[in-house]
Amino acid sequence: MSSYLAASAVPLVQAHDAVLLDLDGVVYRGALAVEHAADSIAAAATAGAQPVYVTNNAGRPPQVVADQLNGLGIPTDPAHVMTSSLAAAKMLAQDLPAGSTVLCVGGPGLAQAMSAQGYRVVTSAEDHPDAVAQGYGPHVGWAELTEAAYAVGQGARYIATNLDASLPTERGMAVGNGSLVAAVVNATGVRPVSAGKPEAGIFHEAAALVGSTTPIVVGDRLDTDLAGARAAGMPGLHVLTGVSQAYDLIGAAAHERPDLLAIDLRGLLEPHPEVTRDDDGSWRSGAGVARVSGTDLHVVRDGIAQSFASLTEISLDELRAACCVAWEAADGGVTLTLQPRPLAVVAA
C-alpha cells in the first residue's frame, strides 16, 4: 500500500461520519454550483456523513451561506457552516475577555461573529480597540484599511480570518483577503495571526459542530484546504474542480499533499484504489503506471513510457501513480523537469 496516497475499500462516506467541505471551487464557483456537487452531498448525508461547510470567506454570516446553498439545491442550515470569522472569534476568546473592543474590517459576517462572542464592535481607531480583526468583504477599501493600520500602529493585536491571496469566482481569480491584509502589513510592519485555513483550529471547530469523530476534509486548494487537513490530523480529499490542478499536485510540498484524489465530489461516493510501488521503481494505481527516469516523469501506456509533459489528457489512476512517484522523487532530493501546461484529468 502506498505511503503517499491512502486507499479505501468502501466509499468514503461509509468510512467517515462528517464531510468538512470547502465552498469556493468545491461546492460552487461564485453563483454557480459545481457539477455533481448537490447530488453528491445529498448522497453523503443519506449515508450518514454529515456535511459541514468550512470556508475562509469571512464576509458572510452562516445564515447567508446556508441561504445560498439552499438556493443551489443543497439543503443546509447555519449550524452546519463554519466560517473563518467564527474561527477568528473563537481564537480571540482564548485570551481576550468578553466586553473588549474589536475593530472589524470586512463584511457583516465578521462583525456578527465578534458580537456573538461578546465583543464590542467598533469601526474607528479613535475608539482605541483592543484588537483588529480583518476578513474578506467585497466593499473593503482604503478608508477601512487605513483605520486598521492606525489601530495596529497604536498597539492593537491583529488577527486575520485568513490569508488567501486570491478567491475563485465564475469570472476567474479575484483579490482575496490575504492581498488586502498585505496592504495593512506593508503600512505597519505587523503581521497578523490567522484563524482560518490552513490553521488546524477551524477544522476542529467544524467537526465539533456535529460531534464528528471521523471527519474527512474536502478541498481544492493545496495551500489552505489540504495543508489544513494535515495540520488538523484529518484525512484530506483533493478535488480538481477549483484552484490546484494536476501539475500543482505533482509538485506538492509534503505538508500540502492530499491523502486521496478525485475529479469532483463524486469521489466521496466511491472506493479508492491502493497505489503500489513495483520492484522497478514504478508506481501503479489500477491501470495507471508512472515512473521517473533521471529528472523526467513518464506515464507508461501499453508498455511505452510517454513524457508527462507531452500529455494533454491523463486518467485519474495515472495521476495517482504520477503523484506518488513524483513525491517519492522529491523526498529523495530529485527535482523533476516539469513545465506546467493544461492537462485534462478523466475518470478512466
From TrEMBL:
Gene3D superfamilies, sorted: HAD superfamily/HAD-like
Database matches in Pfam families: Hydrolase_6, Hydrolase_like
InterPro entries per the UniProt record, alphabetical: HAD-like_sf (IPR036412), HAD-SF_hydro_IIA (IPR006357), HAD_sf (IPR023214)
Annotated TM spans: none
Gene Ontology MF: a single term: phosphatase activity
Domain of life the protein comes from: Bacteria
GO cellular component, one term: cytoplasm
Listed name of the protein: 4-nitrophenylphosphatase
Organism phylogeny: Bacteria, Bacillati, Actinomycetota, Actinomycetes, Micrococcales
